[in-house]
Specification:
The protein is mainly beta. It contains three helices and 41 strands.
């Protein structure tokens, strides 16, 4: 008795724990959950068997009760626990004549492929039902046997796996073959383990619900006898009861049968009602002996047609700031129109590319442009196709200007210089073709967070800054602006500093003389009367450029050097730099050649 085995386990089975933890809390929680489940299963099996209920001390029969009297019963635990409190249950019973249990009379069936689905309403006897026996008879009702090996307990749940919805229960009986009728009935089991009388028996059997394989329809063609429709079957005519042929003006419309049920051997049909040039689609439907049906793929009647549709007329085309393109055109009036294709190119001398992957029946198209490109325009055109794939001429070409989101390339400073009155720049323009202006920008050197200030927009490629504050270092760069207002990154930058030049500090009468006896150059000049700062002497030998030779007090008037080489020419420059940074211009000496 499998139910008895379950009852034993619910009473004497040990809880199994897989949880760990130093405090044992996981074990306690898992043990409690298992005990709750065992308690529920114990009462479930007790409701299904009176003998098991008695063995579990969950059933009592009072055979001394007298008819017409009323009794009160109480039930309480036979043991006393110092750690657990036990309550007492009460029930009042009136002893009345026994009433027969009502039978389950709501059974109905649904016949499926090798399966019978039984449905009935939840048993509504006085105490309800703990489960059901589903019984089957294959000998016309002479004998019944139980289909379920254990009592069927329905789950009342909204989950998709539950077998009861509301008050309706469901049970599926698997069959080994179709068209073998049997009788089915239901018995309910009450919570006292009593079985109700058998309900009404309903006949049912499995039925063929699998449609035939799909017919293979060949392209219908127009002939002198009418539209010739031909088809074949992948599986021959096994289990086939016949065919029908149906038509519709397009594959999305409802198809209407134009034939009665054709014979099993039929594989072609001539539709004499079809008109040449009229769009018409055909389908063939096959039926099996059980009434299951399957239709072919719809195919259009193939007619002789070499006349293409008219070219579509584009009525609007635009592109917004995000690159979204919208194109609209008028619908063609041809009755055999299949749809449209949209093409594009970035340059008219390039190949046109089909934008629509499929033929579209709409009269508008929307696409998104890739804006991070150097091409500024894009071109579109549309053509139409009919059902025989005749292509119309193209529509007029539409040119759209792309939203400009690409900033110009940066210009480049190629040279810079400083005079006593200007900061001079020479720069190369940006290579972008849509640049409309170049700006020279300036900021105080060493302050990266200071914004660039536009100080000139000359288009000559040169700039002389006469307004820079004397004695302060500035950083210069050049930017480009295109016709969309986009600004390039700044060019390479240069730092320039202009010092005020005072003519009063300018040394004069600078003379260089070679002393061949002592092999040295003597340099003399007339001082301008500067009282502070320093006097800087630069030397140039014609090969190594100009280098700082010496730094003297500003009041000095002569200097001698022996760092000379025979066969070379020398020239000297002198300028005065005061402590506050004010400096004179450079005064140059004569050129001296040292002979061998």
């Amino acid at each position: 008795d499998s139910l008895a085995a379950v009852a034993v386990q619910t009473i004497y089975g040990q809880a199994m724990s897989s949880s760990g933890g130093a405090d044992g809390l996981g074990n306690i929680t898992e043990t409690f959950t298992q005990q709750q489940a065992l308690h529920g299963y114990g009462h479930l099996v007790a409701e299904q068997s009176a003998a098991i209920a008695s063995a579990m001390a969950l059933r009592f029969v009072d055979r001394t009760a007298q008819r017409g009297k009323e009794y009160i019963y109480r039930v309480y635990s036979a043991t006393v626990s110092a750690t657990q409190q036990h309550d007492t249950a009460f029930v009042v019973v009136q002893v009345t004549p026994h009433q027969p249990l009502p039978a389950v009379e709501s059974l109905r069936v649904e016949e499926q492929e090798r399966e019978v689905v039984l449905r009935w309403e939840k048993y509504n006897g006085a105490d309800g039902a703990s489960g059901y026996w589903i019984e089957q008879s294959t000998n016309g009702g002479a004998t019944f046997r139980s289909v379920n090996r254990t009592i069927y307990t329905a789950l009342d749940n909204s989950d998709a796996s539950a077998n009861m919805r509301g008050t309706t229960l469901e049970y599926r009986v698997a069959l080994t073959e179709n068209y073998k009728p049997a009788l089915y009935r239901i018995r309910a089991i009450t919570p006292f383990g009593e079985s109700t009388p058998p309900g009404m028996a309903v006949k049912a059997m499995g039925r063929d619900k699998t449609p035939p394989l799909q017919p293979i329809l060949q392209r219908p063609v127009m002939t002198e006898q009418g539209a010739h429709v031909r088809w074949s079957l992948p599986d021959g005519d096994r289990d086939v009861a016949g065919f029908t042929v149906a038509t519709a003006p397009n594959p999305e419309a409802d198809f209407t049968d134009i034939t009665p049920r054709l014979s099993v051997s039929a594989r072609e049909y001539y539709d004499k009602t079809s008109a040449t040039g009229t769009p018409l689609y055909y389908v063939v439907t096959v039926y099996d002996t059980a009434g299951n049906a399957r239709s072919s793929i719809p195919l259009r009647l193939l007619t002789t047609d070499s006349i293409p549709p008219a070219a579509p007329t584009i009525i609007s085309a635009n592109v917004d700031s995000t690159g979204m393109v919208h194109i609209r055109w008028n619908r063609n009036t041809e009755s055999d129109l299949k749809g449209y294709r949209v093409f594009y190119t970035n340059q008219l001398d390039h190949e046109w590319i089909q934008l629509t992957t499929d033929i579209t029946r709409d009269t508008s198209y929307t696409t998104v442009l890739e804006l991070n490109t150097l091409t500024k325009t894009i071109f579109y055109k549309v053509n139409a196709l009919d059902e025989n794939f005749n292509h119309s001429p193209f529509s007029r070409v539409i040119e759209l200007t792309k939203p400009d989101i690409v900033a110009p390339t940066a210009p480049r400073i190629t040279a810079s210089s400083v005079t006593d009155s200007t900061m001079n720049l020479r720069y190369a323009f940006s290579s972008s073709t849509d640049v409309v202006r170049h700006y020279v920008v300036r900021r105080i050197a060493g302050s990266d967070t200071t914004a660039w200030i536009r100080i000139d927009s000359s288009a000559s490629g040169t700039y002389a800054d006469r307004n820079a504050e004397s004695g302060r270092t500035f950083e210069y760069a050049v930017i480009a602006v295109d016709n969309a207002g986009l600004v390039s990154q700044p060019s390479n930058s240069v730092e320039l500093r202009r010092y005020p030049v005072l003519r009063s500090l300018l040394p004069s009468s600078v003379v260089a003389v070679y002393d061949s006896v002592r092999s040295m150059l003597n340099l003399s000049w007339t001082a301008a009367g500067a009282s502070g700062g320093e006097l800087l002497i630069y030397a140039s030998n014609g090969d190594d450029g100009s280098t700082l030779l010496a730094s003297l007090p500003a009041t000095a008037t002569s200097y001698a050097t022996i760092a000379v080489r025979k066969g070379r020419s020398y020239r000297f420059g002198i300028k005065v730099v005061q402590d506050d940074g004010v400096e004179s211009a450079m005064t140059y000496s004569n050129t001296v050649t040292v002979r061998d």
